[in-house]
């Protein structure tokens, strides 16, 4: 039996399933995905976006008369 080395699920440690690599199940894939939203992987918030106080261009053209 020449078995391909099975990787283990990073979530629960069970052997990973081809279909859900590198996880063992859709459930564990879900758990990993949720980590992105619960803050395990912290994505720095960006505060440097320019604030636009003006309305859309052309919205104030009435003042130019
Ligand atoms: Zn798992």
Helix content: 10-25%
Taken in chain order, the helices and strands follow as H
Task: Provide the β-strand percentage band.
Answer: under 5%
Strand runs, count: 0
**Which structural class fits the helix and strand makeup?**
mainly alpha
For the biggest sheet, the summary is: none
* N-to-C CA distance: 86 Å
Cα radius of gyration in angstroms: 25 Å
Would you give an account of this structure?
With 65 residues, the chain is mostly helical. Helices cover 20% and strands 0% of the residues. It has one helix and no strands. The N and C termini lie far apart (86 Å). The model has no long low-confidence stretch (mean pLDDT 79). The structure holds zinc ion (ZN). The site of zinc ion has 8 residues, from loops.
Question: How would you sum up this structure in a few lines?
Answer:
By secondary structure, the chain is mainly alpha-helical.
Features:
65 residues; mainly alpha; binds zinc ion
Question: What topology does this entry show?
Answer:
Elements: H1 26-38
This protein binds zinc ion (ZN).
